[in-house]
């Protein structure tokens, strides 16, 4: 096997769709990763319900294979991993990249923290699930909402990494795994408090990512190695963020710009970057 494959979750719209387009463009340029000749041959676009844009992209090239499923159901990650394994086996490909964007939804949600908006595929507020951002200690009463927040933000990403681990460890190609986190998940960087469940769920995701980095590097020590990181995508301009942009004091990125910068960051990860937390511009964020 010489060709490689990548997985992008939340690929139907927003940053996920922009990343899918950007990664496909790189593969068309025959971008070489790791070992010479091991260019990307297939991109597995994971989502619950494909958008017309993603369907059109998949129709335009056999390199894109849409895989539908849920990351929060009991068997969802395992079912997705099976479909991806079968797709790789059919073409003799090695799975070497994971862009771990989505929790249970493909569309981005937005969080507000003193005029800071973070665009990522996660959950902060969803009344149907009982999820509301807690501003005060007295708000920490809705156990169901807290559990749903952790199920989507914390457990879904690591469960997918776990389901794909056997495929990552089955070859000698270097593996790059990036999970979309948020700067507000940094415990060291927390100077404002509030948003208790959201912050904690992203901090938990970061902890999961760090542990996964240690294990995958150990398991692939003589098999190409691994670079597993958490990334912060910045504030991204989408229709959902439009009503709030007047309060944003810093740069607002187009989805394509965020995707390109993150793609540059992830594709240039080296073994020494394993277990780190990066912003979209390449600066390291403290855990």
TrEMBL record:
It holds the Pfam family adh_short. Coiled coil: none annotated. It comes from the Eukaryota. InterPro entries: Fungal_SecMetab_SDRs, NAD(P)-bd_dom_sf, SDR_fam. This is Oxidoreductase. It comes from Dunaliella salina (Green alga).
């Amino acid at each position: 096997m010489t060709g490689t494959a990548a997985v992008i979750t939340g690929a139907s719209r927003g940053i996920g769709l922009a990343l899918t387009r950007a990664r496909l463009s790189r593969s068309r340029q025959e971008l070489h990763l790791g070992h010479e000749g091991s260019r990307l041959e297939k991109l597995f676009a994971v989502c619950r319900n494909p958008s017309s844009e993603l369907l059109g992209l998949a129709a335009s090239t056999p390199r894109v294979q849409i895989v539908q499923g849920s990351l929060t159901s009991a068997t969802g990650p395992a079912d997705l991993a099976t479909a991806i394994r079968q797709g790789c086996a059919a073409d003799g490909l090695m799975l070497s990249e994971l862009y771990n964007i989505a929790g249970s939804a493909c569309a981005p949600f937005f969080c507000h923290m003193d005029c800071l908006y973070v665009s990522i595929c996660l959950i902060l507020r969803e009344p149907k699930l009982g999820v509301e951002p807690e501003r005060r200690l007295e708000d920490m009463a809705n156990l169901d909402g807290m559990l749903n927040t952790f199920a989507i933000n914390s457990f879904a990403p690591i469960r997918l990494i776990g389901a794909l681990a056997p495929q990552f460890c089955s070859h000698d190609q270097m593996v790059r795994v990036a999970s979309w986190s948020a700067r507000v998940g940094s415990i060291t960087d927390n100077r404002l408090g509030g948003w208790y469940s959201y912050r904690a769920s992203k901090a938990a995701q970061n902890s999961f990512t760090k542990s996964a980095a240690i294990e995958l590097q150990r398991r692939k020590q003589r098999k190409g190695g691994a670079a597993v990181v958490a990334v912060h995508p910045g504030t991204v301009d989408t229709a959902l963020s439009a009503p709030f942009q007047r309060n944003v004091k810093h740069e607002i990125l187009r989805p394509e710009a965020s995707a390109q910068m993150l793609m540059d960051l992830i594709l240039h990860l080296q073994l020494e970057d394993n277990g780190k937390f990066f912003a979209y511009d390449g600066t390291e964020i403290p855990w």
